[in-house]
Design brief:
heterotrimer; A mainly alpha (about 525); B alpha+beta (about 230); C alpha+beta (about 400); C: about 400 residues; alpha+beta; Cytochrome Bc1 Complex, Chain D, domain 2; five-stranded mixed β-sheet
Chain lengths: ~525, ~230, ~400
Amino acid sequence: MSTAEAHHDDHDHHGPAPGFKRWLYTTNHKDIGTMYLLFSLIMFFVGGAMALVIRAELWTPGLQIVDPMFFNSMTTMHAIVMIFGVVMPAFVGLANWMIPMMLGAPDMALPRLNNWSFWIMPFAFTVMLSTLFMDSGGPAGGWTMYPPLTLQMGDSFAFVVFAIHFLGISSVMGSINIVATIFNMRAPGMTMMKMPLFVWTWLITAYLLIATIPVFAGAVTMLLTDRYFGTSFFSAAGGGDPVMYQHIFWFFGHPEVYILILPAFGIISSIIPTFARKPLFGYDSMVYATASIAFLSFIVWAHHMFTTGMPLAAELFFMFSTMMISVPTGVKVFNWVATMWRGSMTFETPMLFAVGFVVMFTIGGLSGLMLAITPADIQYHDTYFVVAHFHYVLVPGAIFSLMAATYYWMPKWTGNMYDEKLGKIHFWVSTIFVNLLFFPMHFVGLAGMPRRIPDYSLQFADWNAIASIGAFGFGFAQLIFVWVIIKCYRGGEKATDQVWEGADGLEWTVASPAPYHTFETAPEIK
Amino acid sequence: MNDPNNTNANTTGNTNATGTPADAAVSAGADAAGQSFGHNSSSAAAGPAKESAMRKHGLVSAKLLAIAIGMFGFGYLMVPIYDIICEVTGLNGKTGRVAASEYENVALADPDRMITVEFVGIVNAGGSWEFKPEVSRMQVKPGVTYNTSFFAKNLSSQPVVGQASPSVSPATAAKYFNKTECFCFTRQEFDANSGRDMGIVFVIDPELPANVDLVTLSYTFFRSQPPA
Amino acid sequence: MRRSLLRAVMAVVACSLVLPSLALAGYGDTIDMTTGVTEISRSVHSLHRTIFYICCIIGAGVFAVMFYSIFAHRKSRGAKPATFHESTTVEIIWTIVPFAILIGMAWPAAKVLIKMEDFSGSEMTVKITGYQWRWHYDYLDEDIQFYSQLDAAHNAARQRDSGVELEQFEHYLKEVDNALVLPVGKKIRFLHTAADVIHAWWVPALAVKKDAIPGFINENWAKIDEPGIYRGKCAELCGRDHGFMPVVVRALPQDEYDAWVADKKAEATTAKLDAQREWSHKELVATGEGVYQRNCVGCHQAEGQGIPGMFPAIAGSDVANGSLEKHLETVLHGVGDSPMQAYSTRLNDSELAAVITFQRNAFGNTTGDTIQPSDVRSYRNGQMQSLATDTGYFSNFNVTGAN
């Protein structure tokens, strides 16, 4: 590995190599960022197609389209693909593209490693998705993979564990690279407290990844040895305990939730000041809030397990620690609103998505606060209310932030302005359908519809039909997104270097499109 | 990757090697590269600057990798930690195991206190057993040792080995429920269609919280792998 | 400007409270949590409403300020950007105030939680065991136990493309063959466990949801105030038919409950007598079909065809057409670690005899065998010699995976 690093700058002073080889061997942070982003866009449609299978089956009561086993494998794979194949790689892609440019660095610290972290992913997902075509079917025990259920799965299980290990290696390598870049490659004068918030949130995210992904890897390895090598970590028959898996899993799983949202906070914190034409309110408190969220995320995991039977003291502790998270999260929302306050706002597409993010993420956050209340959670747990909650945080939350980021930085990437009108249509159509899709889930969840079921009682029929309409509307609206990207890549009004009137930061000082190599001479930060 | 010095040695070796066109290109670009990879470096010379940049990257990477490996280990460490937490808090109804003699000289706060102990036998789906307690309830005095037994019968026509896994509810009572002898400590072998009584000896710690008046002891009987 | 802002905020806050209340009043059973029929469920419900309103107020306040700003501070209205970017006072306030609100929310929640966890003074105990995909209820004080699973008519309707009109069922997928019958006004303790994978027994009206974990017992309780039928579901993903293992609780006044207990005990006596007599072939096949529908159809399917790669077929299989001993062995004791479980304690001798007779004479299997309850009994006692149909050893099911 070290040899590879030593050679990493061989290509620095050439242009891109021609053809496929450019992409296969590239160590250029912009190329790798582009590949990450395109990969996650493709996976977004793969995971989305799975979601549509789920929503099509749930359109009306009764089983019409798929076998319950395949339905379970769809819910499982949809989650794995969306988390590990869409949101995480997309954020890594943005980090690759933007962090060196934001810090005034010529590239990532470990470019060759960077190439490997990317190319592991398509390989791992090929392995993962291939299980759908195996005799035993894909994994169908939920993405949380609770034993003993998950140990009942066929041999596809071993492939999934293998794929997760590779995805984990990819994430950890990517994170090491990002931390090394942030620590060592900042332009002179770029102190830590001058870094853009996107960089800060990514720094903290990278630490979360490094600290938690290996724990997850450990947990799935234990599952694997339980299944194939006769250990009994999680089997009561051999003195183990299935609940212990849940503790280990959620020790990873809860920080993972913040891995999926912290970079989004960074993106929104870049976009809102730009379009409010006013500096971000409370930069310092934003940094501290992000750090406290990350810290708290390690001591709240058991709130996913209130129904497993816990001592009263533990239930009280996890209830209160969970509620505490809403304080720094609230600070962030208040800061964004204060940034808008008395600004001079315009509402280009990135800003629309950012405002949509703030509103709908807050809705998701508030339902999260409701879920923190242990006695109420006993009623909410494992119902569609939970599904509504985390989708509000992840779809109009994380996914909207990614779309906002794409619109925001796309002119810098391609050198062309995207089609503003199409962008706005994309925003409004997405927002309407995403609410049709997820809002009714609160209702059916409260009324008693459990999650992960392929068929349901008639009382839930109306809301489920509406949710399915929302799902298909939202799904097809994303074709507009693809069209905007293609159109913008192919041409359009030339973007200025500054792109946005209120934009501030080093990435806006380079030409549009950003040249293959930027900041080969470090800029001076005042 | 683990060893920053090693990284450094490799870097030095590659930078100093001359004669190939690729290296010449690196040297030619050394000025820019030196600056770019050593923005925070005060060194003016290109070669050492790059070298120190690589050393810095190596150091950070090594530390982070160490964290990652450590956290993988921590995942496994959670297994014994969890057991300890279970023992201390009674989480999941893991029972204690002490000698009855410990309670011989304990003065009881309330000598009339009686606790109902309920026994439950559960058969896991993997096996074909009959498994039930001798009595379903007992009235016991804290600090006094009692005997009871469970009856298990192998209903299948093959010899099998079973393992009973105990659990106590409510969880707050678990650590006060002590078994001095129990069939659950070892695996139990049964011939085809044979059954027997299996005894346990237990004592309830007088410290049992006052609001607990009923304690359930359950055993789940699992089919176990026959010893090799 | 300040004043108009204040008024706007107040208006939005008012709307946010009134609208949900109106909505909740009209469509309670499809959009909101049930109030339930226990003291705990009512506390949980009021807790839920309280937090919901607090969240509405917070949300409305934040959004009102934000939308006012979006309306007033836009460039097209000629707004000039201010330059402030911090205010320690404001930041301290909006850290402390939420903290205070949280404590206000946590306090009543903790009180309810403490009450939920107080198991003392219970008057009866029901042990609930989760199986894939049915529940087993064991009244520890009464020596009554039975399985409870999705009603057969619902089960037929929920098969893929069954063509059955679902509107005919008032409680589609929430009807079982044997409901859990409980008395009102008694503190009932539930012990939860599972025999295979993790399940969760959930009845919203009782605010009881607890994971059933194999190898461990969990406990909670309910004291039902009103007689009635309360429906719930399994809440933890437990495999293929997770969506099809409902819970139905029938709460009766004490005297009716006592009558039910007496009936149930008489029923058990009748069943015991039934197992002693000789059954006709026709009777066995007919009874066996019902047993098959309730217990086997989930995996082996309606036509005994199984699901290739997952569940073996019974139609034309070696087990159902070969040695009777092998067949009894398979049904009574299950197959290793495969999903085929042991039915020796789950079904009584009459039901076992019936279902085996049925399987050997249906789906194109034509052994012509008649298996009597007494045959099952003698098999149980290890006296298979009396059954002369042993035709040697037949290959086992493929058992996938290591132990």
